[in-house]
Amino acid sequence: MDEKYLVGLDGSDCGERAVSAALTQARISGASVVLCYVIPWSPFTFSTAEENALRHKRREDELARASELLLTPEQKRFEASGIACEIVARHGHPAKTLAQLAREHEVSMIIVGVLGDTPLKSRFLGGTASTLIQISPCPVLVVP
Amino acid sequence: MRNTVPSKLRLLPAPVLCAIPAAEAATSPGLDERIEGLISPLTDWIQRVILFPTPIPGSDAQMAFVVLWLIVAALVFTFYFRFINLRGLAHGFRLIRGDYNDPKAAGEVTHFQALATALSGTVGLGNIAGVAIAVSVGGPGAVVWMILAGFLGMSSKFVECTLGVKYRSINADGSISGGPMWYLSRGLADRGAALATLGKICAVVFAIFCVGGSFGGANMFQSNQSFQQVVGVTGGAESWFAGKGWLFGLVMAFFVGLVIIGGIRSIARVTSKIVPLMGAIYVLAGLVIIGVHIDQVPAAFALMFSSAFGVSSVAGGMLGVLAIGFQRAAFSSEAGIGSAAIAHSAVQTSEPVSEGVVALYEPFVDTIVVCTITALVIIISGVYVDGGSMSGVELTSEAFETVIGWFPYVLAVAVILFAYSTMLAWSYYGLKCWTFLFGESRGAEYTYKTLFLLFVVAGASMQLGAVIGFSDAMILAMAFPNLLGIYFLLPTVRRELDRYWAKVKGGELPTWRENLRRRR
């Protein structure tokens, strides 16, 4: 099977590090890449009737903004290096959604950045990478 | 207590009963009385028609006509849909749990969110005060009938919310609108020219009543009752707040205004998160009290059931008790009123029936679960026997106080928050009906919102007798156009249900887990 990487972006330099690592790896292995941005969201939150009425529209706006501002510029970087690159934006729990996308796209590896440069930070901020390691269907490359 | 209430009052809605002591206390003549003098001939008439006491054959008991109308509809729906209120429960639970959520539709309104939003609009004074009134007026037996009515009401919610989703419309700004005004006008238009006219009339009448209800029972009554509770906890007549209703009303209107005119959504968002928490605290406190007196629970149930059938102290015996229980349930669950369909219709689903099945849980939670807990607490604590002249929130408050001394303060906060969230929810329902009548425009919206805020202040500062009865009648009146139209739409819902149910039973509706397994 062809190599395919799932790269998680989050709009910070943490995602940026994951992108750099993915570029390096893909150049070596000739893998294709699925770039994704997960918009944090839970199906079990409480909202007002007005929010609900506008939700459908908002969701589409959020998805459009994610691909336009975040995913497309990065996609161009990959394509400039001759690497096939798909983009996907989705709402959900970040780690769970990444694992789900990994299954859907049948990728061979997930690449994510991690924020935890101090023990305290890793306790509170490195959650996505740590959870992902536990539930991922494939190897995970965590970029510090 | 039971014998001290004059029999003609038994059939009045809770808010009227609550308002009566307040109205008697009003001694200052002036603005209040002048306003009442102007409005009351009209309001009395409307009230008399809508709450027309209908004699129950074979007894001297009476029931407000609208309650009879609601119960008959709930009964018809329960049989017509072959006890959907029982057979839909398991599937509804799986829908709420998210078993059928499509991962690709993540970010849309889920079944859980639609249900939670609708619930926060209905849970409130109706449940906390309503049971207390049922027990104090009709005795413990009324609770049994209240629960039965809640159970039947589940079928009404099922029909309303299925239709709400089926006939919802997408506005120019991309927002989703649904509810009785849409399913009455569009749904009946599908069924021929004659019914199209009827549908249009029903929709307009519904919208008018809904606007009226949003000003009245869902606004004035709420601000009035939360003010009473604040005065109550801070020392009754000696309270600093006593007689400063206008101030309380202004503060309340300010906070409502911040959200609906100021557009400060974060407050609404925070409220929508605190209200479920308050609900959970209330249920938990109830369970603690029941747990402390667990040995008395069988006796309490025995008392409820034995007094449900034939009580000599209530006019009309068993049927009299039944009438009281049914009436309280109608206020508590709002099933058949149509308001919930507005909140439910934003859900993401291609199957209208799925939201109908989820909506079964609304009366289940707010009328069956919450009411049973409240009733048990009141009966176990015994306060209803020697509670004197207390009724409504005060009685519930007293019952909780017997075990948890500081609970009345929590309850006061909860009552204010429930009132606030009910106002916010209904300001939205009312606005949707207002724009249905007058078209979507900024001018129309601000007119409605300004009127709404004026009624908040009026509700807290005025001692309302007739006006509250009238506004309550407006809420109940929504059931006339709503249910009348629904009868003609029943075959449509039946077709939807049969098709959906065949899909569920035939395994054509895989959960996302099954989907994943199939793909591998």
In words, what does this structure look like?
The complex is a heterodimer of chains A (144) and B (520). Chain A has a single domain (4-143), classed as Rossmann fold. Helices cover 53% and strands 22% of the residues of chain A. Chain A contains five helices and five strands; from the N terminus they run E-H-E-H-E-H-E-H-H-E. Chain A has helices spanning 13-29, 49-80, 94-104, 119-125, 127-135, and strands at residues 4-9, 32-40, 85-92, 109-113, 140-143. In chain A, helix 1 links the parallel strand 1 and strand 2. The mean pLDDT of chain A is 86. Chain B has a single domain (7-506), classed as Amino acid/polyamine transporter I (Up-down Bundle), CATH 1.20.1740. Chain B is globular, with a radius of gyration of 22 Å. By secondary structure, chain B is mainly α. In chain B, helix 12 packs across helix 17. In chain B, a hairpin with a 6-residue loop joins strand 1 and strand 2 (62-64). The chains are: A alpha/beta (144), B mainly alpha (520). The interface between A and B is medium-sized, with 27 and 42 residues.
